[in-house]
């Protein structure tokens, strides 16, 4: 059974639908008002934890996931239908990270319990129809917006084990042996320390109850400081609801082993020592293991471990193991559900930040490439989105765009940097314009008509449209 599993997938939320330009046509009403409806919002992309899944193998077969876009608005103020959200089912315990995130950035989401869901990509806003542009000055607006683009990103999925019980202890104590006895798991068992390098999961079915055990690789002094794979292992402990602490009865100093592990837990996260713990004094089939048993028991009792949580067992022969597991189950059942969830390590991220809407039009940067054909690139979250949502089919939309370029100070900045008639201006990646020094409305309209006649219609996404700007 593999505990670690990773996959990389592409997700794309639905684009918003286009707004519509329409006017009411009614009998006896010669000049109806604007009635073009807004486009529908695009669908979002979510991940949701599905308890029927236990691996990420499905993501080897399908890599691209897209939510349904919003529909365009219609006449008579009809709003376009909203896109449909896409729910990507993943096994509980899946962590989602942005592919481009730095190593220290927190994950986008983590779904732990069945039904947990998290929003990964937000659908684009529906473009406004011309009815939305009506004002006291503009009674018959001849423009509408394109829908906003749905978020898209590559994300890495990582499956982390979510075990009820973590089996901890010093190297070679018999943790893997115990796991193999309580479950059908077949972890590697060997007579040397650090046999286990990756936690093994085992499902224990007993008394009609299912308990998932994880065999945590041997903890050693300094683990909390990252010695060995310390941090990794301790992080796994955090997600377990209870711990079984295995002591090696044949060790020269079982009490020292016990306190060393407890110290590591406490140093890493004081909550870890407060997790319910059942202690298994192991290897009691070995004759001289009984030397320290009474002493260890006294020590544990004196340190607050309840008597019914201390067992002398032999993982090798199975002695007392059933009683140990029953006690573990009892401890789990005694925990309130809420506490179980609180200690499961969930980050409780349900929604990544929405598309930032506080970006301002006057926050932009200009890059110039004057080596070949002269190209100026304008970058800025707000202006780029505005350009994408401008429907260049409408003259008034183009006019509105030009005004925003003015008000935001972009035209002024371009002029100051020495832009020349005929230079290309890119806004973001997709929108290509041509600079004209004559900025009068007449020149703009003429240029728009010329382009419209040449193209019939301006292709969306690659709007090539001369004489804007200035
Ligand atoms: N006699 C006896 N030997 C045991 C018992 N349990 C485990 N062993 C032996 O102890 C050695 C270590 O067992 P593992 O289960 O690999 O120990 P571990 O704690 O998983 O060790 P690491 O993964 O290296 O941390 C093996 O040789 C086992 O056969 C037991 O109850 N009695
Ligand atoms: Mg092991």
From TrEMBL:
<keyword id="KW-0479">Metal-binding</keyword>
<dbReference type="InterPro" id="IPR036346">
    <property type="entry name" value="GTP-bd_prot_GTP1/OBG_C_sf"/>
</dbReference>
<dbReference type="InterPro" id="IPR006073">
    <property type="entry name" value="GTP-bd"/>
</dbReference>
<comment type="similarity">
    <text>Belongs to the TRAFAC class OBG-HflX-like GTPase superfamily. OBG GTPase family.</text>
</comment>
<dbReference type="InterPro" id="IPR006074">
    <property type="entry name" value="GTP1-OBG_CS"/>
</dbReference>
<feature type="region of interest" description="Disordered">
    <location>
        <begin position="128"/>
        <end position="149"/>
    </location>
</feature>
<dbReference type="InterPro" id="IPR015349">
    <property type="entry name" value="OCT_dom"/>
</dbReference>
<dbReference type="Pfam" id="PF01926">
    <property type="entry name" value="MMR_HSR1"/>
</dbReference>
<dbReference type="InterPro" id="IPR031167">
    <property type="entry name" value="G_OBG"/>
</dbReference>
<feature type="domain" description="OBG-type G">
    <location>
        <begin position="163"/>
        <end position="333"/>
    </location>
</feature>
<keyword id="KW-0460">Magnesium</keyword>
<dbReference type="InterPro" id="IPR006169">
    <property type="entry name" value="GTP1_OBG_dom"/>
</dbReference>
<dbReference type="GO" id="GO:0000287">
    <property type="term" value="F:magnesium ion binding"/>
</dbReference>
<dbReference type="Pfam" id="PF01018">
    <property type="entry name" value="GTP1_OBG"/>
</dbReference>
<keyword id="KW-0547">Nucleotide-binding</keyword>
<dbReference type="GO" id="GO:0003924">
    <property type="term" value="F:GTPase activity"/>
</dbReference>
<protein>
    <recommendedName>
        <fullName>GTP-binding protein Obg</fullName>
    </recommendedName>
</protein>
<feature type="domain" description="Obg">
    <location>
        <begin position="1"/>
        <end position="162"/>
    </location>
</feature>
<dbReference type="GO" id="GO:0005525">
    <property type="term" value="F:GTP binding"/>
</dbReference>
<dbReference type="InterPro" id="IPR045086">
    <property type="entry name" value="OBG_GTPase"/>
</dbReference>
<dbReference type="InterPro" id="IPR036726">
    <property type="entry name" value="GTP1_OBG_dom_sf"/>
</dbReference>
<dbReference type="Pfam" id="PF09269">
    <property type="entry name" value="DUF1967"/>
</dbReference>
<keyword id="KW-0342">GTP-binding</keyword>
<dbReference type="GO" id="GO:0042254">
    <property type="term" value="P:ribosome biogenesis"/>
</dbReference>
<dbReference type="GO" id="GO:0005739">
    <property type="term" value="C:mitochondrion"/>
</dbReference>
<dbReference type="InterPro" id="IPR027417">
    <property type="entry name" value="P-loop_NTPase"/>
</dbReference>
<feature type="domain" description="OCT">
    <location>
        <begin position="356"/>
        <end position="437"/>
    </location>
</feature>
<dbReference type="InterPro" id="IPR014100">
    <property type="entry name" value="GTP-bd_Obg/CgtA"/>
</dbReference>
């Amino acid at each position: 059974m593999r505990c670690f599993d990773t996959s990389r997938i592409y997700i794309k939320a639905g684009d918003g639908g286009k707004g519509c330009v329409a006017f009411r046509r009614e009998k006896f009403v010669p000049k109806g008002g604007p009635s073009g409806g807004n486009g529908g919002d695009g669908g979002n992309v979510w991940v949701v934890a599905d308890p029927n899944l236990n691996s990420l193998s499905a993501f080897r077969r399908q890599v691209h996931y897209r939510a349904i876009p919003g529909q365009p608005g219609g006449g008579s103020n009809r709003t376009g239908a909203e896109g449909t959200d896409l729910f990507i089912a993943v096994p509980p315990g899946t962590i989602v990270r942005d592919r481009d995130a730095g190593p220290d950035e927190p994950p986008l989401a983590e779904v732990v319990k069945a039904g947990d869901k998290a929003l990964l990509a937000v659908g684009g806003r529906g473009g406004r129809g011309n009815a939305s542009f009506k004002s006291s000055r503009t009674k018959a607006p001849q423009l509408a917006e394109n829908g906003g683009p749905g978020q898209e990103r590559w994300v890495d999925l990582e499956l982390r084990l979510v075990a009820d019980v973590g089996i901890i202890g010093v190297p070679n104590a018999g943790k893997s042996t115990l796991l193999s006895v309580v479950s059908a798991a077949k972890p590697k068992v060997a007579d040397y320390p650090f046999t286990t390098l990756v936690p093994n999961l085992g499902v224990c079915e007993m008394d009609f109850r299912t308990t998932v055990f994880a065999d945590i690789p041997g903890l050693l002094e300094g683990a909390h400081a990252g010695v060995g794979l310390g941090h990794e292992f301790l992080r796994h402990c955090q997600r377990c609801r209870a711990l079984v602490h295995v002591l090696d009865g044949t060790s020269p100093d079982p009490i020292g082993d016990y306190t060393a592990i407890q110290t590591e837990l406490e140093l890493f996260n004081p909550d870890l020592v407060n997790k319910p713990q059942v202690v298994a004094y192991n290897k009691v089939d070995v004759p001289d293991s009984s030397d320290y048993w009474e002493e260890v028991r006294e020590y544990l009792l004196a340190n607050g471990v309840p008597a019914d949580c201390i067992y002398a067992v032999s993982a090798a022969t199975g002695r007392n193991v059933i009683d140990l597991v029953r006690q573990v189950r009892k401890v789990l059942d005694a925990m309130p559900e809420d506490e179980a969830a609180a200690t499961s390590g969930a980050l409780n991220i349900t929604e990544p930040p929405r598309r930032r809407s506080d970006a301002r039009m006057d926050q932009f940067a200009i890059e110039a490439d004057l080596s070949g054909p002269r190209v100026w690139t304008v970058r800025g979250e707000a202006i780029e989105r505005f350009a994408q949502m401008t429907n260049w089919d409408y003259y008034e939309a183009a006019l509105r765009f030009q005004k925003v370029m003015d008000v935001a100070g972009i035209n002024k900045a371009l002029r100051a940097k020495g832009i020349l008639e005929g230079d290309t201006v890119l806004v973001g990646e997709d929108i290509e314009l041509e600079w004209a020094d004559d900025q009068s409305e007449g020149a703009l309209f003429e240029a728009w008509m010329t382009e419209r006649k040449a193209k019939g219609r301006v292709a969306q996404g690659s709007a090539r449209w001369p004489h804007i700007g200035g």
